[in-house]
Amino acid sequence: MGILNLTPDSFSGDGLFGSSSESVNMPDSKLLKEDLNRAYKNFHNQEISIVDVGAESTKPSVKHIDLEEELSRANLYLENLNVGIINNYLHSIDTYKYQVVKRYIKFNLQLKSNVFRIVNDVSGGEDRRMIDLIINHNLGIILSHRHPDSKFIHEKFHYEDPVEEVKLHLSKQVQNLLDRGVQKDSIAIDPALGFGKDKEVSYRILDNIEQLSFGYPIVVGFSKKKFSLAFRMDSLQLTEFAFSKGVSVVRLHIS
Predict the structure, then answer these.
(1) C-alpha–C-alpha distance, residues 54 and 106, integer Å
(2) pTM above 0.90, yes or no
(3) Does the chain have fewer CB atoms within 10 Å around its N or its C terminus?
(4) How many CA atoms lie less than 13 Å away from 241 in the CB half-sphere?
(5) 187 in Cβ contact with 199 (< 8 Å)
């Protein structure tokens, strides 16, 4: 899974454009199309099969953007896409706002294709309206781990047994989706490495990621996160390590 950041403030420095609310930072349409074509060419060269599109940064201490700004960034992306290219990829929508997902669903209908068919929800499936969209439009969901007591995604908690505790929390989150009517085969789980977890906890979870399996595909993101340095592997080696442990999808920054 390759990451496509429609942000000016990605922690990895790979955001495609600045704030659309400030005209000085409005991207030139021609240049944006070139940047998008270049990004998708990189995805092709790296044999990426899923593109994860997000218009709001989730780095620690970031200032959250409002719905209008996120939709504006999404619209800029959708209006400048090369439709002939994007049909070659499965896409996930990295957002916790159901209105943003509705915009991508509208694009699917206009295109008469199901290009954007997964929701990557860092909130852990908290919004009933998001779940209704997923059910009604037969979308998949990547369910991110959230500690049950967390008030925001980067609030850190102490873990005695990180893998077992995260597995327990995720199993309860999954059951909540199933109880609401989401189909089992529509769900993948993400331990949310680096979110609400210190470097040691994230390292222990990834090092023992096979123990997190309980019948759902596992998605992990460690790209450019500090805890990954402890493995003393390059990105390719760490990706192969994750796959060898039973991970289904690895989320990567592709430069």
Answers:
(1) 17
(2) no
(3) C
(4) 16
(5) no
Main-chain phi, psi angles of 143, to 5 degrees: -90, 110
pLDDT tens digits, one per residue of 67-92: 999 999 999 999 999 988 998 899 99
The rounded distance, in Å, linking the Cα atoms of 206 and 191 is 9
The two three-digit tokens of residue 199, written as one number: 């470097």
| DSSP label of 175 | H
Torsion of CA 20, 25, 31, 33, to 10 degrees: -10
Contact 94, 53 (CB under 8 A): yes
Query: Which domain, by its residues, includes 88?
Result: 2-253
pLDDT digits (tens, 9 = 90+) for 164-214: 999 999 999 999 999 999 999 999 999 999 888 999 999 999 999 999 999
Who contacts 53 (Cβ-Cβ below 8 Å, separation ≥6)?
A: 4, 6, 74, 77, 91, 92, 93, 94, 116
The gap from C-alpha 183 to its chain's centroid, in whole angstroms, comes to 20
Structural domains of the chain, count: 1
Q: What's the CATH number where 143 sits?
A: 3.20.20.20
